[in-house]
Amino acid sequence: MPPRIHTTEVGSIASDDLTELGAGKEGWLVENPNLICALDTHSLAIANRSVVLVLEWSNGDDQSGNRVKIRPTMNPIEAEYISAIEWLVFDDIRVLALGTSCGYLLIYSLGGDLIHKQIVYPVKILKLRVRGTKRDLTEDASSEEVCVVLPGAIARFDGADIQSMLRRWFEETHTKFWEQMSTNRGADDSENSFGRLPYQLWNVSKYGSCADAAITGIMPPPLMELQSSQRYYCAVSIGDDAVISAFRLSEDRSRSLVGAILSKVVPVTFSTIASLSKMIWRSERTPPKRPEPKPQPFARATPLTCLKDNPRKGEKLTLSPSGTLAAITDSLGRILLLDTQALVVVRLWKGYRDASCLFVEMLVKRDNSASNSAYYEYEKSDYCLCLAIQAPRKGIVEVWQMRTGPRLMTIPCAKGSRILQPTYRFGSSTLSTTSYIPLEVFFLNGDSGQLSVLNRSFN
């Protein structure tokens, strides 16, 4: 009986351009901690500390896919480098978002043009997360966002604000005045001419600095604030001090009375002192400098719970599409499945050191004749949520059915491979159920350059 084939090759990323990123050495894709990847439907972005290579994978012998190199301008004094990368994909717009070690969010076009640059908070950006939930029978409200994870803090950009800014930029690039305007705009502008993107920022370091975090979705307000018009979000963070901690995030930026008084009095005091000093000493006039952008004040974050289990440390966090489940890996080789609504661990795996997890949707076995037809279009209800666990020390990938289902398959995974997933695509909530695109998992073999996709059916 021939062995079952659980993956299908979709293309290759082999290219001489990868040499700059370390290709050619066995295990180069997984052994370099500064190498980060982001996958889109037909493109892959790979970044090291100073350069981003964007390439389209090719099919068969065709090696003519587009390749773009992006070299962001970094601050050499601060030894700034690229620390996070993610695709932002809208209906007809595809751009690349970068996070830096100095806390800047950079957005680049596929042509390598800098679209937007903005300070989030002056610390290293650990991760960029793109997530959305659309209004349907199970969700009362839709929410699409870009989440920026920092040590001890988390920021949220609304997807609609980013899309609006990108549309203005692309419309401007096609006007006849663009060339003149681009020459008038200084290359060293610290902020884009379209202004700052609005965002919320929360401090989630009550239980220690976090190694990863995520906003899991909208949650109800506290009992005493049922009439509040503010939105509340639930955030889960993991780190060295607390394996898991959860917070209720409020859009209200209200602070204490003392803080409000200080925020008003201190700036006025310094302004008065500066004016008097100029009148007394009449210092020579110097050309005005562009003020350094200031970080946004923190909004209110209320601790909900935490799990401390020394010496266990949280390492990686992966969210399900709906945000109701989170897979968390720790330093003891365990994987915890967290219900983010009840904030309860509902499942535990042991013996998976250095593991990586991704949620995937697989076809459920159906007995009716309609689903066996070649013309049948699968709906969301035809798929079941599963968790793909890559165990590099075992050289395998396991697929487990959620929440408490069995292990469905075990797949050999070549050494030097990564599992990746295409980013969430911002879009309309009016999509029909027959056009549902399930969550997929891809295998990228760095040594051979082959890219494969996990088959949706396990029968």
Shape: globular
Backbone CA Rg: 24 Å
User: What does the average pLDDT come to?
Assistant: 82
In terms of DSSP E residues, the strand content is 35-45%
User: How much helix, percentage-wise, in residues?
Assistant: 10-25%
Classification by helices and strands = mainly beta
Q: How many extended strands?
A: 28
- Which oligomeric form is depicted? single chain
Main sheet? 4 strands, antiparallel
Q: How many helices in DSSP terms?
A: 5
Major sheet: order of its strands?
1-28-27-26
Low-pLDDT runs of 5+ residues are 185-190, 255-270, 281-287, 429-434
Q: How far apart are the termini?
A: 15 Å
Features:
single chain; about 450 residues; mainly beta; 4-stranded antiparallel β-sheet; 28 strands; about 10% helix; about 40% strand
Structural features, described:
The protein has 459 residues and is mainly beta. The protein has a four-stranded antiparallel sheet, with no helix packed on it. A four-stranded antiparallel sheet has the order 2-3-4-5, with no helix packed on it. A four-stranded antiparallel sheet has the order 6-7-8-9, with no helix packed on it. It is built from five helices and 28 strands. It has helices spanning 28-31, 159-173, 178-184, 257-281, 369-372, and strands spanning 7-12, 36-39, 43-47, 52-56, 67-70, 82-89, 94-100, 104-109, 114-119, 127-133, 143-150, 153-158, 199-203, 210-219, 232-239, 244-250, 301-307, 314-319, 325-330, 335-339, 344-349, 356-363, 383-391, 396-401, 407-412, 417-420, 442-445, 450-454. 12% of the residues lie in helices and 38% in strands.
